[in-house]
Each structure stands twice: as structure tokens, then as C-alpha cells.
Amino acid sequence: MKLLELVQLKLVTSLKDKDLLELADYTSEEVQGLLDLAMKLKVITKEGSCPPLLEGKTLGMIFEKNSTRTRISFEVGMNQLGGKGMYMNTRDLQIGRGESIHDTGHVLSGYLDGIMIRANSHEMVKELAEHASIPVINGLTDLTHPCQALADLETIAEEKSELKGLKLAYIGDGNNVAHSLVVACAHVGIDVVVATPKNYEPKEEFMKKAAEIALQNGSTVAHTYDPVEAAKDADVIYTDVWTSMGQEEEAAKRLQDFKGYQINDALVAHAKSDYMFLHCLPAHREEEVATSVIDGPNSFIFQQAENRLHAQKAVLASILGE
Ligand code: CP
Ligand code: NVA
User: Fold this and answer.
1) Which of 56, 268, 279, 318 has the fewest C-beta atoms under 10 angstroms from its C-beta?
2) Which atom of ligand 1 is nearest to the CA of 71?
3) Which of 62, 71, 140 is the pocket-test mutation for ligand 1 (most atoms within 8 Å of CB)?
4) Was domain 7-144+308-320 assigned CATH 3.40.50.1370?
5) Which ligand 2 atom minimizes the distance to the CA of 246?
6) HSE, side-chain direction, 13 A CA sphere, residue 240
7) What is the dihedral of CA 295, 69, 27, 168, to 10 degrees?
8) pLDDT digits (tens, 9 = 90+) for 123-157
9) CA of 55 to the centre of ligand 2 (A)
10) 7-144+308-320 and 148-304 share one CATH topology?
11) pLDDT tens, 213-237?
12) 105 has pLDDT over 70
């Protein structure tokens, strides 16, 4: 009997050798399959029996920006699956001295089985995927953060009996995390409302893609400037930092512009009493979220951070596994 049958794990076989650039590139069935696999992998990992599905495989992990969760969870995830994660910083690679993404993609394809990359520019990640003959996984760009959104869905699925019909309010900056989250919610039929100040709306492209996917799954995607309207009767309240990596020079202006969008006790009072608070982390307490909320009983931030490990193992096993 095959190892996979013994532990009753079902890889999402349609994803074999595919890139993960954006969740909009995947079908809703594939996203659901990854969630089911992630939750099973979590259980068997905690029992100490995560199968070595990626024995002998090496994932290159390229970072152009800082990371705690993404870096460690990908590396540990590869270890738990019997493979190896290899950290690389663009400053140390020849990319840092101007070698092209084109050549880098070709060269790395001769050594590695897959590449995970965190980059400033989404275009650069797409270019790498075009020139690498091995799968490329997006570990955050200026536009998207798909691995985060998968872990977010896993966390909600663990706590709520049914995803379809839930209401998620994302309140804050219409950024990379928001873009992937709206598409992820649409895939599983969660109604999503994004509340941002003027000039910080999520990009139309992602709202449109999410709305198309949501239509197929019987859910809705909306934007408002009113945080109270978003929070009203929400099952999940989500926020992220107001100043993302690379926007540091805008930090003072953003502090002003986002006034009124903090997730605090007054705002969450509009949500359902059993609402979940989520944040991709790192967080700035008393800026985008009050300490009483992020460290309160409705916060699931550490479970959410841990789930990066299991959601990504589901992605890695499906893309790189046999
Ligand atoms: N949420 C997230 O991606 O965290 P890191 O920046 O620490 O990887
Ligand atoms: N929006 C944040 C997410 C960090 C995980 C950033 O890009 O810095």
C-alpha cells in the first residue's frame, strides 16, 4: 500500500508542477483541496507522523525583504516533509549585482526542485516563473500574499463549522494581504467586505477577480469607506499594518490617513459576539489594532501564524510531490 493511502492524504494532483503566483490562478476545488490537506497534515504532524513526501527534494527560498513566518515555516515545512529548504538573500546572490532574473531562473532550475520567492515586485516573480522550468511559489510581493491567505482560511475553517455564508471584514490598507484574502474568501464562499480610507482601496483587478469567483460560489465581495458598516455582524475581523515593507517613508502620513480604522473594542462591538480577530503579523499594537483586541479572547493570531506551516506543506506536497 502506498504511503499516502496509509495516512489517507489526498494531494491536489492537478497542481503538480504548477506555480503558485496568485490564488486566482487556482480553481475553488483546488483551494478547498489544499485546505483539507493542510488540516490533515496538521493533525498527523502533531502526532509525529508527517510522511516524507518530499524526500530528496530541495526548495530554494529567495528573500528580497525581511521575514519571520514565511522563512521559518517554509524551511521547517520542507524538513517535516523529508526535504530541504535553502535560504537565499538577493543581496548575497548575483541578482544583487545585476544578474538577470532570466539567467537566475535558468541556473536555479538545474539545482533545485522548486523556488519560493519574496520580492518587491510581482512582475519579477512572474518573470522568474516564466524562465524557471521548476515551480515558483509566491512568498509575498507588492501585490499579493497567497500563502498567507491559505493559512487564514485554514484558521477560519478550524474554528467555524461552515465557511460558506460567513462574513469577513478586512479593515485597513487595501494591500497585498487584502488582495489575496478577497480572492481566497471568494473561493470558499465567504462574504467579504473591505473597508479602507480613500486612496487606499484594494486594486480593482483583485476585487473584480474575487467578485467573479464569488459569483460561482454564491458569495459577495464589497468595498466601503465605513469601518462600522464592514464590522457589522462580521464573523471575522481582519487587519494588517498600515505601512507595508517598502513604504516606510509614508508612515507618518499613513498614521493620519488611517485614523478611525483602528480595530478596537468600540469597532468590534459591531461584530458577532463570537467573532474571530485575525492579523497576518507582524502587528503594530495601538496602531492598526488595540492591544485589548489582538491579545483578547477572540484573537487567533498565533494559531493563524502556525497554520502557515501546514497550509504551505499542503502546497509543497501537491506541487512538488510524486
Ligand atoms: N505574515 C508574514 O508573511 O510574516 P513574515 O513577514 O514574518 O514572513
Ligand atoms: N502588508 C505587509 C504584510 C507583511 C507580512 C507587508 O507587505 O509588509
Assistant:
1) 56
2) 8
3) 140
4) yes
5) 8
6) 23
7) 10
8) 999 999 999 999 999 999 999 999 999 999 999 99
9) 31
10) yes
11) 999 999 999 999 999 999 999 999 9
12) yes
- 50 tagged catalytic: no
Q: What is the pLDDT of residue 321?
A: 97
Q: CA angle 171-281-136, nearest 5°? A: 100
Q: Tens of pLDDT along 234-276?
A: 999 999 999 999 999 999 999 999 999 999 999 999 999 999 9
Whether the CB-CB separation of 224 and 230 falls below 8 Å is answered with yes
56 pLDDT above the threshold of 70 = yes
- In angstroms, what is the C-alpha Rg of the chain? 19
Domain ranges of the chain: 7-144+308-320, 148-304
Cα(84)–Cα(111) distance, integer angstroms: 13
What confidence category does residue 8 fall into, taking pLDDT thresholds of 50, 70 and 90? confident
Longest distance between any two alpha carbons in the chain, whole Å: 61
pLDDT in tens, 35-50: 999 999 999 999 998 9
Question: What's the Cα-to-Cα distance from 136 to each of 68, 113, 217, rounded to whole Å?
Answer: 20, 10, 28
pLDDT reported for residue 5: 54
One-letter amino acid of 207:
M
Instruction: Tell me the pLDDT of the chain averaged across its residues.
Output: 96
Give dist(CA 81, CA 61) in Å, integer. Answer: 16
Question: Which of these, 200, 158, 197, 195, lies nearest to 270 by C-alpha position?
Answer: 195
Answer whether CATH 3.40.50.1370 is correct for domain 148-304: yes
* C-alpha torsion sign, points 259, 264, 270, 272: positive
